[in-house]
Amino acid sequence: MAKRERQQKVRPPAQDALASDWRLFVAIPMPEEARKLIGRVIQLLAHEDWPVRWIDPDTAHMTLHFLGATPLERAELLRMALSEPVAKIERFSLRTADLGVFPNSTQPRVLWIGLDGDTDRLQQLHREVGTSLKRLGFDAETGKIRPHITLGRVRDTAPASLASAIQAQLAANSATARVTAHGIKVPINEVLLVRSFLDAKGAKHVPIASYSLADAS
Questions:
Q1: d(C-alpha 133, C-alpha 39), whole Å
Q2: Which residue of 17, 28, 185, 186 has the lowest C-beta tally within 10 Å?
Q3: How would you classify the pairing of strands 110-117 and 92-102?
């Protein structure tokens, strides 16, 4: 199996370079077509005027591992270590799928759009990266994951009736397939190490490094 490795370091904003800890996560980026679909779905749901903090579609991604606050020296060690586990997995593809919620429909806290396709390869990628993270002392999961892209998070002030409204929307989407009918291919070619932080305009995601999966044999 031929392997193709690429690691690209991205410098953080100069005014933020002295921060003691970085809030990091490992993610799969979404192609433009998928981001456009996510934007349309959010626009559709936002018409319901629910108390939900919707994501910026331009930042849409699938989180492989959330790492949280990380000292800069460990962030640099992590940046150098992720190329090898990612390069073990050949490139593959997923597709956008159904809408759903976490933890369940009677107590929705997170609204998401699912991903299906070559989920076995995705699980391998998740496991390989998670194992490397554990070796570095991070509290990483290596078990089965449910692939999804977060669309929004329910605010703490949400009324009890919101659960029923969300259930109705999920049922309507399932009946009409208005989201899944436009399933978008999501090529999985690279993994990003991303820093998340807040500035005056809200949440920002800055890639720290990019790692290529192996070319298909």
A1: 32
A2: 17
A3: antiparallel
- Tell me the C-alpha to C-alpha distance, in Å, between residue 110 and each of 22, 69, 136, 150, 207: 24, 22, 29, 7, 24
**Among 75, 83, 58, CA closest to 11:** 75
d(CA 30, CA 41) in angstroms, rounded, equals 15
Give the global pTM: 0.86
73-98, pLDDT tens digit by residue?
Answer: 999 999 999 999 999 999 999 999 99
* Ranges under pLDDT 50 in the chain: 1-6, 10-11, 13-15
Residue of 130, 121, 113, 65 whose CA lies nearest to 93: 121
Beta strand extents in the chain (DSSP E only):
7-9, 21-29, 52-54, 61-71, 92-102, 110-117, 148-154, 185-188, 190-199, 202-212
Q: Please give the CATH superfamily to which domain 23-212 belongs.
A: Cyclic phosphodiesterase (3.90.1140.10)
Torsion of CA 17, 22, 25, 28, to 10 degrees: -10
Provide φ and ψ at 127, rounded to 5°. -70, -45
Whether the Cβ atoms of residue 154 and residue 51 lie closer than 8 Å to each other: yes
